[in-house]
Amino acid sequence: MRYYNELTDSELVVLLKAGDNIAFTEIYNRYHGKLYIHLFNKLQSREDCKDILHDLFISLWQNHIAIEIQESLAAYLYTAVRYKVFDRISRNQLEKKYLDSIERFVEKGEYITDHRIREKLLIELIDREVAALPEKMRTVFKLSRNENLTHRQIADQLGISEQTVKKQVHNALKILRIKLGTNVFYFLF
After folding, report:
1. What was the pLDDT predicted at 60?
2. Res. 3: pLDDT tops 80
3. Average pLDDT for residues 112-140, to the nearest whole number?
4. Shortest CA distance to 162 belongs to which of 175, 153, 171?
């Protein structure tokens, strides 16, 4: 009786086609190391080599009934490995294109649209709350924040005391802090 490691590749293929898992194991043991070295010389990546060989041998077992080997088992396996490398390179190029497109998207600032919409909504909310302030307080607050006038300049312009301006700005900020929430308030003012 002959052992599987004494069988020729052709004999192993016949047994493989018949579903002999020991023949499959012998093919794996016979070619895995050689194919790994061949792949590593091409790819220089242990993980890619392992993945490709894993895919190759799974495919070989899953398709063992339909397998058609024209030349030799070695030629078949090396050709299959070559196609799997091409698939991997193609997939990596596709992933790179995708990542590059995301990077360009970020670099162009196209994502800013969402931030601008949020900013616009926030400004509308603030304007609405400022508009709801009592008239004199609103006027003082707008001169202070929008026109960047000092308390002295506002007092002179409106003919009121500087202390009144200070108190109106303080009260306006207090009201806005309550209405807008502390986090939004400190972020803006």
Report:
1. 94
2. yes
3. 80
4. 153
pLDDT for the residue 96: 77
Residue in 126, 8, 27, 128 with CA at minimum distance from that of residue 77: 27
Joined together, the tokens standing for residue 29 give: 């043991």
Q: What is the pTM of this model?
A: 0.52
pLDDT in tens, 63-76: 999 988 888 999 99
Q: Report yes or no: 155 and 162 within 8 Å, Cβ to Cβ.
A: yes
Q: Which two tokens stand for residue 157?
A: 């312009």
Secondary structure of the chain as H, E, C letters: CCCHHHCCHHHHHHHHHCCCHHHHHHHHHHHHHHHHHHHHHHHCCHHHHHHHHHHHHHHHHHCCCCCCCCCCHHHHHHHHHHHHHHHHHHHHHHHHHHHHHHHHHHHHCCCHHHHHHHHHHHHHHHHHHHHCCCHHHHHHHHHHHCCCCCHHHHHHHHCCCHHHHHHHHHHHHHHHHHHHCHHHHHHHC
Distance CA 97, CA 154 (A): 58
User: Residue 33 carries which side chain, given as an amino acid letter?
Assistant: G
